[in-house]
Amino acid sequence: MAFSLAERIEERQGDQYALHRQYLNASLARVQAIIGFDKTYTRGEGAYLWDAAGNRYLDLLSGYSVFNLGRGHPVVRRVIQEMLAMERPNLVKMDCPLLAGLLAEALVKRMPPGLDAVFFANSGADAVDTALKFARAATGRPRVLYLDHAFHGLTLSTLSINGGPQFREGFEPLMPGFDEVEMDDLAGLERELYPGDVAAFVVEPIQGKGVYIPADGYLPEAQRLCRAHGTLFVCDEVQAGLGRTGKFLSSEHWSLEPDIVTLSKSLGGGYVPVSATITRRAIHDKMFSRLERCQVHSTTFGQNELAMAAGLATLHVLDEEQLIERAATIGQKLMAGLAALQERYHVIADVRGKGLMIAIEFRPPRSLALRAAWTAAEAAQKGLFAQLVVMALMRDHRILTQVGGPGVNIIKLLPPLIIGEQEVETTVAAFDAVLAEATRIRGRVWGLSGQLIKHALSQ
């Protein structure tokens, strides 16, 4: 009997949550049910998803920035189909594949001066782990510095430079010599650099968890201090790169010239996992220092033909459709609309971001009754108000958003770079309606809090 994937999906549609509870992450499946995200999606296109009942949802998560081009971009899909039709030899291994060279060449053209050597892998964590190995190989030094609130991945090495204690809990001790410094504290950074044993300082120019942005002069001065002390300056652009912030790299907002850059997520056009670590040839050659060490760092699927083709198509679409410029202009309009709400709703403490990487941060309301409800929610679980807003946006407006990290009252928006003014208006209007409802203690937003508090206290 011939295998038909379409028939298999049709037969089992709706079974996914039961399957995940039985065979995969049962806790995650339970969370989806609690917050009302347990939908059965059947189609995705552009900035939207559709469920089995035909309801349309505006996706402001973009797969955590995987879908910068939107879902199912026709150019990337056509290139992948063309790739499959050519039946090219893939993963020969004892080979130097053409497409890997072409994608490396295309990426180098978009890099700051001096970054001219590339290593391809599969995920953001892979790219950061590669950067750590490059830094140690190039400097011979053991230590690595990272920022508070940092998120660089969840493998054991990248967890060692993760600023979130919630992620680190249960996995310690982590790698020795990996030390946290506070954002905007240049004196503290220089104290750590002074002994001369730091291989790399790893930063997200704009942090993914919480969308925290450093003071204007911090990153350029941090880069200068690293140069002065022989430490490599590494910019993790896995989430903020590839046009997300209105520049190809978010580090361009400060005219930085890092020693290493990491990319992933949307580089595969939403179709194929791929990551790139781009560095200076002198650093790259320290890793692969002798002929017998030409494969001292490798990954099986790192230069696969589908990923390289998807990467080339993605870069083409970014340029052809001017999506980086679009992210800057549409992002300004979305930020302006949300900032206008801040003037009307005291509970909005801050609206910040660059391009289409935006955070809305909340604070306790003025009303005594609402403040009491806020305090009760926070006592059960920090960040619960933001989760209530996320749930209301989904339930009442069919908009997917996300709390900006564990224990924070921040909602993060990562819309596809293809969105237009209609999606901006829809988003601002939805936040307006939800926050207006949140000003009423007996409204539908606070009505969700009892269920969440119960679940939080039962853990």
The largest pleated sheet is described as: 7 strands, mixed
**Beta-strand level of the residues, as a percent range?**
5-15%
- Which architecture of the largest domain per CATH? 3-Layer(aba) Sandwich
Q: Please identify the top-level CATH class of the largest domain.
A: Alpha Beta
Structural class of the secondary structure composition? alpha/beta
CATH fold-level label of the largest domain? Aspartate Aminotransferase, domain 2
Q: Count up the helices.
A: 19
The CATH superfamily of the largest domain is: Type I PLP-dependent aspartate aminotransferase-like (Major domain)
Instruction: List the uncertain runs.
Output: none
Classify the helix fraction into a percent range: 40-55%
User: Shape, please?
Assistant: globular
Roughly what is the average pLDDT, rounded to an integer? 95
Strand order of the largest sheet: 4-10-9-8-7-5-6
Q: How many domain units?
A: 2
Rg is 23 Å
Question: What is the number of strand segments?
Answer: 15
